[in-house]
Amino acid sequence: MKILVPVKRVIDYNVKPRVKADGSGVDLANVKMSMNPFDEIAVEEALRIKEAGKAEEVIAVSVGPAKATETLRTALAMGADRAILVQVDDGVEVEPLAVAKILKAIADEEQPGIVMLGKQAISDDSNQTGQMLAALMDRPQGTFANTVEVEGDSVTVKREIDGGLETVKLTLPAIVTTDLRLNEPRYASLPNIMKAKSKPLDTKSPADFGVDIAPRLKTLKVSEPPVRQAGIKVADVDELVAKIKALGIA
């Protein structure tokens, strides 16, 4: 069985994003970039399934600029067998539906038993690609995975939901999206980082898969969130009620 793991290049989670002066978007100049944390978890889980003898190959794929090669090399250094970069022009943001269409085309070629991806990217928090991919491919899906167990021709996924955990059993092939508590991703060792440089990495374009990546949404303005105001102390309930009324909350 193959496992296909999409990964995205995003601003490192330790970096505070800066908004461009003209409000047209987020400033990426001289900003540290890294693999989306949820995707790191997906790579780790795919590798654990392979190490358990339940998969033969882990393929990392990314849709992004040429610099996304670095992100794919990270996945290869962690242990993925090969990688595919679907390259777009620098500065082009590919929307979830277009990404899902590209992933469907790759999955049709590779025929993976599982497509395992992070539940969302921290760059836009869309949480859409996995679900759209499952719909396009007409495959069962287990989203927000807390636990993943592959047995024979099925995979059991414990999902994190508002009320606790929900367990679903999916017939393979299936789509799984990973949540934070699924695992702790490994660090790539120096020898594996060196080995990753010689692992296969193919470069494609959206046109190779017949996918139009023209945006369907237009960003009107990007701005910093309002600064949180300092709290105040009140002497008693009457003063609290008066303050609430003065603010127009009640």
UniProtKB/TrEMBL annotation:
<dbReference type="InterPro" id="IPR014729">
    <property type="entry name" value="Rossmann-like_a/b/a_fold"/>
</dbReference>
<keyword id="KW-0249">Electron transport</keyword>
<comment type="function">
    <text>The electron transfer flavoprotein serves as a specific electron acceptor for other dehydrogenases. It transfers the electrons to the main respiratory chain via ETF-ubiquinone oxidoreductase (ETF dehydrogenase).</text>
</comment>
<dbReference type="InterPro" id="IPR012255">
    <property type="entry name" value="ETF_b"/>
</dbReference>
<dbReference type="GO" id="GO:0046395">
    <property type="term" value="P:carboxylic acid catabolic process"/>
</dbReference>
<keyword id="KW-0813">Transport</keyword>
<dbReference type="Pfam" id="PF01012">
    <property type="entry name" value="ETF"/>
</dbReference>
<comment type="similarity">
    <text>Belongs to the ETF beta-subunit/FixA family.</text>
</comment>
<protein>
    <recommendedName>
        <fullName>Electron transfer flavoprotein subunit beta</fullName>
    </recommendedName>
</protein>
<feature type="domain" description="Electron transfer flavoprotein alpha/beta-subunit N-terminal">
    <location>
        <begin position="23"/>
        <end position="213"/>
    </location>
</feature>
<dbReference type="InterPro" id="IPR000049">
    <property type="entry name" value="ET-Flavoprotein_bsu_CS"/>
</dbReference>
<dbReference type="InterPro" id="IPR014730">
    <property type="entry name" value="ETF_a/b_N"/>
</dbReference>
<dbReference type="InterPro" id="IPR033948">
    <property type="entry name" value="ETF_beta_N"/>
</dbReference>
<dbReference type="GO" id="GO:0009055">
    <property type="term" value="F:electron transfer activity"/>
</dbReference>
<comment type="subunit">
    <text>Heterodimer of an alpha and a beta subunit.</text>
</comment>
